[in-house]
Amino acid sequence: MFVYIEQTNLRDYSRDLAADILPEGIALKQMRQAALARTGVDLFGDTIKPGDRVVIKPNFVRDRHPDGLDLYALITHPAVIRAVVDEVYQALGGEGQIIIADAPIGDADFDHLLAVTGLQQIVEYYRRVKQFPIEIRDLRKYRYTLRQGPHGYAHEVRSELLGDPGGYVEVDLGSASAFASLEHLDLLQGTDVARRAETIGYHTRQSNKYLIARTILDADVVISMPKLKTHGKVGVTLNAKNMVGINGDKNYLPHFRWGSTAEGGDQHPAGEMRAADERRMRVGRLLADHLLARNTRWSNLAVTTIQQMTGLASRLLRLPTIDPINGHWPGNDTCWRLPADLIRLALFADRSGAMQATPQRRFLSIVDGIVGGEGNGPLRAAPKACGVLLAGLHPIAVDLVAARLMGFAPYAIKQLYELSQGIAPRLVPGLGPCPVAAIEVLSNHQPWCRLLHEPAERGLDFQAPPRWAAQITAARPVICAND
After folding, report:
1. Which terminal residue of the chain, N or C, has fewer Cβ atoms less than 10 Å from its own Cβ?
2. Which of 369, 269, 363, 366 is nearest to 323 (CA)?
């Protein structure tokens, strides 16, 4: 298997997505031609056949950067998507379907995302010039908005969206899930604090469920287009973590377990917080489980009263603000299991949601690294101009190389180790193992061809997520066949 890295002279993106030729398109075509010359594999032509339904899965995590920085440190840029659409259209020969689809975080405004990115220009260009329809789909079933209650309590309100036009399939991985071996499942926390009981119900020893969009299950080809970006809960967000966006209800997705490691959780390390702060956090969890979950006027009023009382006491006693970390550290043993499950679902679940022994759809990865996201990712990453694109046919091979290119030790990132050598290959042999000895790195920048085996090759020197640097930016950030 091979992974190709194209070093470009691009440090920013095209804004006119309806131009006939984009610099991103030229760069992608050069990469495709170079890979074909070196390997005999046509990334698009050998993956896509006329008449196929092709789903392009970008990373559209949110519609604005919370710190006012470049949004494209967080999301896949539409100019790179347009370049991929052009190649897909050519491979389809004008016959088939192209769908751009993702499920952003719960509070993202999808209409605003379309407006600020100009993504609709791609649809309009293909309608006007090619007479070829392209769809853009928000795969979320729900959206969350923050509202101020009549008694001062600010709470999230869930509203139902149109969702996937094809609907959803609840897929149960059962004991084949990476969560089946996890202890203290009663401490699981999903997206919605008030619906924690639902998250716990979705993941047990016997049953592990996800709500998968039919847009993905009905695809013949999935093209994953992640951002080259860090992630505080799992280290990096690349192809495997990008598959979180195929699930329609975020509350199926556990992100950590409440409490410290001494209590069976992985929200934060044991011993970092004072006993009084631990107790305050425990009270907060009980309030969420027993009052917020009811979502009535009186329960919300009770929460407000308790918050005001404890807040006053904290100010009088000058207690420090609690920083619970919420799973943003290498000791999070929960969140990596999501990409381990969801990448397998994306590849091996058939149209009915049943898991099969062979891949049910073809896969291609194109990683947007023109501008990467470093530091406090995935939602507050800082922009890093890199000027690179990566491509490959095996999602985990691409993730291993991409992490190494970022300057990290891939096997020190638990999701990558488990997906390449650990739990995933044992559960689904078709996905792995993925030994680095079997990966050939190709690039127009010759030193990068030695990334997996030469400790002197530093890559792009990404800033690690907070608390991760000591673990993943080792003095010898290299993986090799004997590691």
Report:
1. C
2. 269
Calpha distance 277→280 (Å, rounded) = 5
Task: Kindly report, residue by residue over 323-345, the tens digit of the pLDDT.
Answer: 568 899 999 999 999 999 999 99
Band (482; pLDDT cuts 50, 70, 90): very low
Tokens representing 162?
A: 């149109």
Given a cut of 90, whether residue 306 has pLDDT beyond it is no
Q: How far is CA 471 from CA 323, 384, 474, in A?
A: 21, 21, 6
Rounded distance, CA 159 to CA 136, Å?
A: 20
pLDDT tens digit sequence for 14-35: 999 999 999 999 999 999 999 9
